[in-house]
Amino acid sequence: MNYPVAPTSHAMTSAPATAPARIVLEGVNKTFGAGEKNAGTVALKDVNLAVPDRAFVSLLGPSGCGKTTVLRIVNGLLAPDSGRVLISGAPPRPGPNMGFVFQSFRLIPWSTIRGNVEFALVDAIPDRAERRARADRYIELVGLSRFADAYPSELSGGMRQRVALARALAVEPDILLMDEPFASIDAQTRELMQMELMRLWSARQSVALFVTHSVDEAILLADQVVLMGPRPGRILEVIDVGLERPRWTYDVRAEKRFIELRAYLWDRIRTLVLNDPGSDFYGRDLGTGR
Ligand SMILES: Nc1ncnc2c1ncn2[C@@H]1O[C@H](COP(=O)(O)OP(=O)(O)OP(=O)(O)O)[C@@H](O)[C@H]1O
User: Coiled-coil stretches, from where to where (predicted)?
Assistant: First the structure.
């Protein structure tokens, strides 16, 4: 098939000498329910990825292609069946240097918003006043200062998601893993949060792995978009976005490069979904409009 653009892409990133890979996945395989009576789900097959230091990388792909599984393996919450995962040259270990924003927000229901964020900082900041100041700074950043003393049940889903983001960011981790952190947030707040995230990431230059279903969001935020395909979950290509930063100073979406990348990625995702027997849209005739 001919795609509308030929973006800079490669199956596996090789980090330049000046920016050594911070996260490395080599030949990673993961099957859920392997060896059980019914054949297991191959969530990841031969996944190879090298995320350069200080890079913002989006993981994009249809439902079930293994995006969350990649994050959980990088985080150390899940062990691969085979292959190697290295974070800064060592096996992954959950800890304060790694922030994780889950799809489910996992807030403590009996603790206030401030309490939730402070709780994440107990190990990193022993001093109570300092801890509170840090928590308040990040609560303000996600626009929830007025709700610092409220409980999670008093907040909307989108607001709870912002608390989860504040909690992960407040730790100021070297590696930030985010699983659709803006999925429940309304469109306007989402745009503001995207900008805030970019500002924070630029200031700290941490590594970010960001899972999203939104093509626009994937391009807008990332240095590289990792396109994944389902059944079995695998990496299809890694695309260098190549749009100038900072991206909040100009209309990124109006750039020719953005428009081309968007069309290319949509085309690929549409093709993947329509050709995937496991998809609800398998075989449908959804014209490309081109
Ligand atoms: N704990 C589990 N037990 C069994 N199968 C699982 C488990 N977790 C994930 N899977 C399966 O592995 C595959 C990859 O799942 P994963 O959640 O990583 O995909 P995803 O791309 O993040 O999906 P989505 O975009 O819908 O969140 C899917 O087929 C899923 O059903």
Answer: none
